[in-house]
């Protein structure tokens, strides 16, 4: 995470644009989890996204990937490269589903540690690639949005979010509605945190464009109602997703505090200073005819116990500036084709799948199954990401050894075909594991978050993630093909033969030659057997193996006190700017 001394390099690294060959020394390519009856997913392969690092100066982290809206072979990715706060963004394009990558020549506005890309729709139905990062001067950075219609060769600045107070501690999310059937098809959304009240905490601001980035409207989503005695709030790491009905949703982390410090925004203070670890979700409505965006209530979706793990204090996972497994940085948010909202949050080494069927008004929590042990060591789950496709939702995440001083990390996935009732997996995505200690000893470790995207074919997922197998952080990606369950055919009954009716047998008397009459018996008809239909066996469908359902917890666990520290005094309040409800237009 950025600090007050943050320095931004406001240019994309112009690396020689040669394609990276695929590299998967520990790939599980071809490995399939599940069966035709349960549904399955298959690892198609793993490749390098960034070059192999040779020094701290060439390490990479936090890859954010996005799929082309029409071409299933095309992907774009951006990651932060470099030693630490001096990192710079690198944007790359793939034309072969992520097997090889080439760096773009263009330089969009903005840099820093958390750049993002999102592929969407532009004028005349063409694809448009959006890029966002912070730009400006030290301690007065704002998020900027640029776009490219030629896969990064040239860029145009579309928006600078300077209607909110600038600072150094921002982290954002960007999303585009690429569902052709959506009433908001083509809408662009940007969500970010900002110092709304330097004496009380950060805000959640959302801006949206209905015309491919030409004009923008904005709204401020209020914080969750705080617990008594904890008026301040640290809010960060927002997540956006679009919905088939044309709305969108934004989720975010809220740490309720007695006192928050503007000069040390990531400082939590001691256990007495912490009132709640919460995640809220709000529905966004975007009127395409007026360009006005509004928000619904910010609703508490889940709250976490105040444990070492959830506060980022676990010693073996504590980095130089952030905790590797701290839940706030990496979460998932999607809406399936039936309108169910899914939020994925890691808590104490388990991934909570929190769902809502009433547009976010109420929420239900289930737990993802525990991943299998690795080398005899139990595993915990962290850093989840979600992808929704037709008839399935996938969770992509990291696993980490549950105990020990020398812990290792791997990657895993699980897929549900019945809306979260059961899961196929978890299963490993590759055979590689990396040691935690040397990676988190560097600024931001492998990055604070990872990203997955659904290719335009609707069945292939590309998961990009920070990885430490080289001894320094680098970006890798895995391709996963999802295969829904094979429908069980309805048995067709075997036709039953209908017996042909037989006529009544009549005896014919043959005349007897003239002579002595012989006694004549009464002729008797020979009985005719009535055909009987053979019994037809009714076909029985073969039993279908169904994964065991995931248990549903009754309530959130009881909070556990975290380590104590002494909070520092807060800065004096500064009035917040007033946002205009009317759309703003860029030159």
Architecture overview:
With 587 residues, the protein is mainly β. 2% of the residues lie in helices and 40% in strands. The protein contains 2 helices and 32 strands. The strands form 7 sheets. Strands 1-2-31-30-29 form a 5-stranded antiparallel beta sheet, with no helix packed on it. Strand 21 and strand 22 form a beta hairpin. It is globular. The N terminus and C terminus are likely disordered.
Q: What's the SSE blueprint?
A:
Blueprint: E1 32-35, E2 39-48, E3 60-67, E4 75-81, E5 88-94, E6 102-103, E7 111-121, E8 127-137, E9 140-148, E10 156-160, E11 172-176, E12 188-197, E13 201-209, E14 215-221, E15 232-242, E16 248-257, E17 274-287, E18 292-295, E19 299-304, H1 308-311, E20 332-335, E21 341-347, E22 350-356, E23 364-367, E24 379-389, E25 392-401, E26 408-416, E27 424-428, E28 434-435, H2 436-440, E29 451-454, E30 460-467, E31 474-483, E32 584-585
Antiparallel strand pairs: 1-2, 2-31, 3-4, 4-5, 5-6, 7-8, 8-9, 9-10, 11-12, 12-13, 13-14, 14-32, 15-16, 16-17, 17-18, 17-19, 20-21, 21-22, 22-23, 24-25, 25-26, 26-27, 26-28, 29-30, 30-31
């Amino acid at each position: 995470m950025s600090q007050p001394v943050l320095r931004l390099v406001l240019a994309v690294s112009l690396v020689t644009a040669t394609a990276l060959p695929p590299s998967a020394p520990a790939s599980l390519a071809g490995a399939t989890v599940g069966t035709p009856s349960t549904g399955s997913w298959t690892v198609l392969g793993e490749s390098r996204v960034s070059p192999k690092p040779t020094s701290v100066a060439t390490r990479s982290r936090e890859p954010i990937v996005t799929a082309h809206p029409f071409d299933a072979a095309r992907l774009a990715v951006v990651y932060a490269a470099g030693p630490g706060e001096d990192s710079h963004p690198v944007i790359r394009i793939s034309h072969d589903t992520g097997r090889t990558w080439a760096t773009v020549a263009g330089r969009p506005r903005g840099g820093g540690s958390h750049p993002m890309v999102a592929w969407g729709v532009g004028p005349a139905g063409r694809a448009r690639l959006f890029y966002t990062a912070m730009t400006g001067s030290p301690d007065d950075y704002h998020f900027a949005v640029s776009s490219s219609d030629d896969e990064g060769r040239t860029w145009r600045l579309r928006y600078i979010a300077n209607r909110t107070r600038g600072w150094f501690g921002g982290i954002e999310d960007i999303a585009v509605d690429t569902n052709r059937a959506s009433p908001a098809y083509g809408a662009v959304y940007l969500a970010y945190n900002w110092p709304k009240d330097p004496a009380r905490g950060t805000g959640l601001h959302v801006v949206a464009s209905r015309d491919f980035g030409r004009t923008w409207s904005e709204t401020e989503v209020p914080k969750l109602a705080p617990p008594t005695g904890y008026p301040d709030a640290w809010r960060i790491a927002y997540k956006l997703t679009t919905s088939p009905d044309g709305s969108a949703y934004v989720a975010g982390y809220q740490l309720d505090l007695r006192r928050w410090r503007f000069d040390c925004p990531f400082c939590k203070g001691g256990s007495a200073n912490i009132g709640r670890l919460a995640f809220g979700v709000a529905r966004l409505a975007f009127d395409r005819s007026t360009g006005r965006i509004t928000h619904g209530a910010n609703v508490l979706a889940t709250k976490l116990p105040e444990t070492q793990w959830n506060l980022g204090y676990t010693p073996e996972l504590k980095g130089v500036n952030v905790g590797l497994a701290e839940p706030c940085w990496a979460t998932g948010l999607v809406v399936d084709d039936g309108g169910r909202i899914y939020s994925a949050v890691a808590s104490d080494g388990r991934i909570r799948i929190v769902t809502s069927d009433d547009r976010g008004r109420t929420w239900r929590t289930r737990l993802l199954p525990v991943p299998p042990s690795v080398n005899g060591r139990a595993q915990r789950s962290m850093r989840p990401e979600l992808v929704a496709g037709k008839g399935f939702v996938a969770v992509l995440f990291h696993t980490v050894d549950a105990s020990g001083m020398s812990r290792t990390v791997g990657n895993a996935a699980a897929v549900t075909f019945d809306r979260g009732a059961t899961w196929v997996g978890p299963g490993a995505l590759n055979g590689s594991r990396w040691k935690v200690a040397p990676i988190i000893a560097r600024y931001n470790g492998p990055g604070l978050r990872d990203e997955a995207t659904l290719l335009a074919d609707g069945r292939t997922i590309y998961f990009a993630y920070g990885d430490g197998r080289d001894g320094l952080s680098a970006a890798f990606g895995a391709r996963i093909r999802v295969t829904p369950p094979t429908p069980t055919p309805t048995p067709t009954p075997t036709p039953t033969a209908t017996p042909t009716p037989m006529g009544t047998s009549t005896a014919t008397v043959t005349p007897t030659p003239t002579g002595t009459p012989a006694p004549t018996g009464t002729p008797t008809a020979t009985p005719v057997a009535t055909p009987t239909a053979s019994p037809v066996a009714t076909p029985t469908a073969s039993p279908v193996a169904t994964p065991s359902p995931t248990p549903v917890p009754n309530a959130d666990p009881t909070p556990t006190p975290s380590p104590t520290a002494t909070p520092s005094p807060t800065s004096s309040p500064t009035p917040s700017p007033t946002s205009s409800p009317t759309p703003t237009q860029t030159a």
